[in-house]
Design brief:
single chain; about 325 residues; MetI-like fold; 2 domains; two-stranded antiparallel ribbon; 13 helices; 4 strands; elongated
């Protein structure tokens, strides 16, 4: 459902982001005015001002129409814009940033793990020291510092700051994935076919790509899918704090932040609905990781086996 929301975001929303929040006064909408008994025309921005959700007296809740005949599946936000449109477009932002950060982390982790497993010795020791140094730093504080320092840079303008977030997540989170696949990579490097490839004069890069990488790909899929959920909730957390994706680009954490003052009022939906969606998505990606692990390694603990199997196709 989350991927469907992200892929078909423009078609699912009852309006567009441009009409909904970016240039609402540049569009008009028609509605039936019961007082005058005729069809009237009003600017979308003015219609939003008449559809605010700011408490019990001024509220357009989920699955209702406003006074201008516009349907709002999740209600409206505090500025009168449609919450459903905000969330479906925000799901695309979260998914793109999450997938990009996980892909970069997996690439870095796989490259370093295969290199350290092949050469061992000082190379492996250097990788361990570097990963320990990165893991010793508090990740949340590091994310906040880097997003603040690089906020004025040109790279923050790419994809409304999403590309910068993906890079930061990748270069601060690769250590956990590297730790997960380092052991299997070391095991593979001791197999007979690796020694045979060396004796035939194959280059180290060829050996790592053709004879070692396929046996750690399963681990990358498992930990990558689990890391994706963590990346999405981290993106939401930074947006909640006012960092990360630059406004007015929709992001789920920003919706939670905008509606926190109305949680105890009739406009509870502004924060509660995106909060529930974040929980479901993160839980879903964690369950996906467990499912991939069970499919790759049927003898693992989660699959009901007595002992953990080799995993990863090894």
């Amino acid at each position: 459902m989350f991927v469907t929301m992200a892929v078909f975001a423009p078609a699912l929303g009852p309006t567009t982001v441009d009409q909904n929040m970016r240039n609402s006064y540049g569009y008009e909408t028609k509605y039936w005015d019961s007082d005058s008994g005729s069809v009237e025309t009003i600017l979308v921005g003015d219609a939003n001002l008449g559809s605010l959700s700011q408490g019990n007296d001024r509220n357009i809740g989920p699955w209702t129409y406003d006074d201008y005949g516009r349907f709002h599946p999740f209600g409206t936000m505090q500025d009168g814009s449609d919450l459903f449109t905000f969330l479906v477009v925000g799901s695309r932002i979260s998914l793109v940033i999450g997938v990009l950060s996980v892909a970069l982390s997996a690439s870095i982790a796989a490259t370093l793990a295969l290199t350290s497993a092949y050469y061992k010795g000082r190379v492996d020791l250097s990788m361990v020291l570097i990963s320990d140094a990165v893991m010793a730093m508090p990740q949340l504080l590091l994310l906040i510092m880097l997003t603040t320092v690089l906020r004025e840079s040109w790279i923050n303008e790419v994809y409304s700051g999403g590309f910068l977030l993906a890079l930061i997540f990748a270069f601060t989170g690769w250590t956990y994935m590297w730790r997960s696949i380092r052991g299997p990579a070391l095991q593979i490097s001791e197999r007979e076919w690796i020694d045979a490839a060396r004796s035939f004069g194959q280059r180290p890069t060829t050996i790592m790509r053709k004879h070692m990488l396929p046996y750690v790909t399963g681990y990358l899929l498992i930990y990558g899918s689990m890391t994706l959920g963590g990346a999405i909730i981290s993106i939401a957390g930074l947006s909640f704090l006012g960092l990360g994706v630059a406004p007015p680009t929709p992001e789920w954490g920003r919706a939670v932040n905008l509606g926190q003052n109305y949680v105890r009022t009739g406009s509870w939906h502004i924060s509660l609905i995106p909060g529930i969606l974040i929980t479901l998505v993160v839980t879903g990606f964690n369950a996906l990781g467990d499912g991939i692990r069970d499919a790759i390694d049927p003898q693992s603990d989660s699959a009901g086996g007595e002992t953990a199997g080799a995993g990863g196709g090894a």
